[in-house]
Write a structure and sequence with these properties.
Keywords: Membrane, Transmembrane, Transmembrane helix. This is DMT family protein. The protein has 122 residues and is an all-alpha fold. Helices cover 72% and strands 0% of the residues. It has helices at residues 2-22, 38-63, 73-95, 103-120. Helix 1 packs across helix 3 and helix 3 (73-95) runs antiparallel to helix 4.
Length: 122
């Protein structure tokens, strides 16, 4: 069960992270954000990223083997990276309709899935 909690928390964490890192690129489309300066954008993104930590830190503590979780540190990191890419792809397709995914992107993602396989292989 701790593994599922860890993954759910990592998904939530990475959703906030993706919005903090890339969501501001769409602010120009929102009337009340269009004239904000870079410092304001950084502060808004930092505020969003704060919520990432509310999920990321518990995910790592619950999931880490030394705290009774099912994952090693390396396994946690690889899970986080793959979840980040999945969330990023969903975000990209939902909010950045002009971005395209090419064959080399898919091949790279395939290698990341293979990384998960090899990291978790006993």
């Amino acid at each position: 069960m701790k593994g599922i909690y860890t993954i759910v928390l990592l998904v939530l964490s990475n959703t906030f992270m993706t919005f903090a890192w890339y969501g501001h690129l769409k602010f120009k489309d929102l009337k009340w954000f269009e004239n904000l300066g870079l410092i304001s954008i950084v502060m808004i993104s930092w505020g969003i990223a704060l919520f990432e930590y509310f999920f990321q830190v518990p995910a790592n503590r619950i999931g880490f083997r030394e705290y009774g979780g099912p994952f090693s540190l390396v396994e946690l990191k690889v899970l986080q990276e793959v979840i980040t890419l999945v969330i990023f792809m969903v975000f990209t397709f939902a909010f950045f309709k002009t971005e395209t995914i090419r064959l080399n992107h898919l091949i790279g993602f395939g290698f990341l899935v293979l990384a998960v396989y090899f990291i978790f292989k006993k």
